[in-house]
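Worked example

This section walks through a single chain of length 106. The input is the sequence exactly as stored; nothing has been trimmed or padded.
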Amino acid sequence: MKILVSVRFGSSWSCENPPNVQMFMLTYQPMIDALEKGETLTKGHPAILQFVREFVVKFPAYVSFYIDDGLENLEVQEVSGSFIIIAREGYEEVDERDLINWLPVS
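Given that input, the structure is written out below as tokens.
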């Protein structure tokens, strides 16, 4: 699955949201398509405008985030199993469960 991740110093993209909001943000296909075509995402880009329209309708309680903060830091990454997005000093890191030696709780 392809996801959107903020990989350079700046604001995290999706970390600070509940899982349903985070998954919407991570997997927003029009933005993924635009980045894969080499387009630059700005607050006036059609994919961003579409994202904002859909986001406001789906998640009205979460519209307070600043949409253009960190757009230039987004990149498409691919994950193949369970994963978690971790905020690290102003960027996001993807950890995949299948690739990490998770410690069991006894």
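What to look for: Residues 2-99 form one domain.
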